[in-house]
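The freezer alarm interrupted the setup, so I double-checked each line after restarting. Inputs confirmed:
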Amino acid sequence: DENLKEAPATQPYNLSEYFKQFLFPQNECELHNFRLSFSQLKWDKWIIAPHRYSPQYCKGDCPRVVGHRYGSPVHTMVQNLIYEKLDSSVPKPSCVPAEYSPLSVLTIEPDGSIVYKEYEDMIATKCTCR
Amino acid sequence: PHSRGRAASDRTSGFLVAPEDNASELNPLLQLPKGVRRGYALLPPLLKVLSDRGPQNWESEVPRLQPDSRALRYMKRLYKMSATKEGIPKANKSHLYNTVRLFTPCSECKHRHRDLMKGDVHSVDLLFNLDRVTALEYLLKSVLLYSFDTSVPVSPSLTCTCHLSVKEQDSSGQVCPSIPHSIAFSLHLEVKKRKWVEIDVTSFLQPLIATKRRNIHMGVNFTCLMGDPQQNTKLENPVNVAPVPPSLLLYLNDTSEQAYHRWNSLRHIRKNPRRPRQRNGLRVDPTGDIGKEPSQGKRASRQRR
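Predicted 3D structure, all chains:
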């Protein structure tokens, strides 16, 4: 009885919320959507296509045991250990893009010629902790 | 997480070289003074503005001349064939190019008609300025692009003869028709409304573009007759279809770090579908043949297998 009295009165339906914090840490490192149009940047006079561009970005905390989940090298866990145990001025591992996809752009050059170009690494497609 | 960034900044000049920097690209002795931000000055316009060196710098990149509307329509059509609506390049194995440049002839060229017995021969002097082609862009194919704006009703089938000659410029910059390298094309075309006609001039212009010639000056004689020799219909009175001066289309393989090299990723996905793609230093031969893997690469892939 004593234990029960001390235990916080939790409604039965909160239990799933309560356990979730252990299973999926809050705002874990993951890919986020971001969409821009070149007219917002006033570049649509010379960038003809595409009209909209979604570069995406990575944001969130890197859990302590990153392992296979992010394809992180062992160094990431070592860095995390240094931050926690030895020297907190060493930064925690960061949530960064691991893979990208290209983007095709149609632009008008200053001399009036027109160029179609495919640029590498313009859209983040996967995140990792490093 | 690639170390590529360092490699790119170490790379010798190869990106777009703004005209004033041309000299330093052409003559290594005229290297940019250390203080000048070399990496920035050599970036293509899009990457230049993304490096956000303040609006005054990239204002100069905003086009001063508006392109020809027909040329713009053609390039938008090429874009739709090459990329999705979101701008992702289509995985099209046949297209090796990652850059296509369209040049319209400089405005001062004259359009001359000469009446001959056989009717009008349209001849025109074309001067193309190729300053925007960078040192790391290799020619895969070049095409003269004619757009027939047939507002006047013409016979459905035409047989046209096009005679090209390249004119050297003498040291004083005057156009003097030296013994022109010339080539004649005879092509039969079904002219529908707003017809594009592409004339492949790759072998013809390759020597000039390979030597990074900045200006290409050529004369084009164009004669169209009605009828179709294959159907041995009699070719009769010439048709006064005044083709608009053609544009020059260059299909290029940009070998710089920032450009997308589909065969590297295609090759890589085939070999290691699971491992995340990493950049290898493989140099792609400009003619599109994929360079041989270094021998140790073969041994490593054999071990992996």
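Quick read of the result. The two ends of chain A are 48 Å apart (CA to CA).
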